[in-house]
Amino acid sequence: MVSLALDRVGARYGRRQILDDVSTPMIEGGALTALVGANAAGKSTLFRRIAGQLHGPGTVRLTGAGDDDLRYMPQDTAMSAALTVYESIILALKQGGGSWRLSAAELAAVDDVLRRFSVEHLAHRQLPELSGGQRQAVSVAQTLVTRPKVVLMDEPTSALDLYRQYEVLEALNRYAEDTGAVVILALHDLNQVMRACTTVMALAGGRILATGPTLEVLTPDLIGKLYGIDTRVERCSRGCPMMIVDGPSHTAATAS
Ligand SMILES: Nc1ncnc2c1ncn2[C@@H]1O[C@H](COP(=O)(O)OP(=O)(O)OP(=O)(O)O)[C@@H](O)[C@H]1O
């Protein structure tokens, strides 16, 4: 089983300290973990630090996976290359080098990821012709084609319609279950978090404010602290917990 833990991790841009002493318990693979926090709280910075794109104090401990097994999908992914979706996924698969030939297993991996994320019908479309939501779904497929054991995704559903949000989160959940991968998603939609993610890490002021099982961590009290918003949790007609937003509170302590 794959797991990831952070021990007193820090990060800065120039003199500006963004993350300070970020520590987490062991995050186990096989299910989705959400990273939540206000705008500018440092979620992308934490992903860059875990992915090795930024350096700083502290330790990122990976168990059952090496640095090569990690993929980070940033918030904005470039899709201007004159490639088809199919070609772009092959390119993502071959990014680590090796033979230019495609083995039967690699061809199967490309087919699998196209099917998992329902982008088969786009296989022969050019990347620059895709809509924003199509681009995002393709980007998820590119990220997962190598079957990474540690996956960090920055707002992977922000451009998707309601049905596609549900579909992509379900597919990500199945991916985590099938591969045992650690999959961490930065998400702003807390209803998506409640529906899809088993564990939550909440970031504020450059530190982890809370981490643990979703329904235990995402309390109205914590949400008030993170976003300055009053909320309550109710159940939808199918029994799924839902966050109802009542409005701004006056207890905000969000990151600068
Ligand atoms: N390349 C950079 N150089 C300098 N400062 C940066 C850089 N990238 C981000 N920052 C700053 O670091 C802080 C954290 O930004 P980050 O993108 O990590 O936040 P975030 O939680 O992902 O935000 P959002 O929810 O808005 O995407 C912000 O104050 C931002 O201005």
Written account of the structure:
The mean pLDDT is 93. A hairpin with a 5-residue loop joins β12 (229-235) and β13 (241-248). This protein has helices at 43-50, 85-93, 104-116, 132-144, 162-179, 190-196, 214-217, 220-227; strands spanning 3-7, 9-13, 16-22, 27-28, 32-36, 59-63, 70-73, 150-154, 182-186, 199-204, 207-213, 229-235, 241-248. The chain has eight helices and 13 strands. α2 crosses α3. The strands form four sheets. It has a six-stranded mixed sheet with strand order 7-8-9-5-10-11, sandwiched between helices. A three-stranded antiparallel sheet has the order 4-1-6, with no helix packed on it. It has a two-stranded antiparallel ribbon with strand order 2-3. The chain is of the alpha/beta class and 256 residues long. Adenosine-5'-triphosphate is lined by residues 13, 18, 37, 39-45.
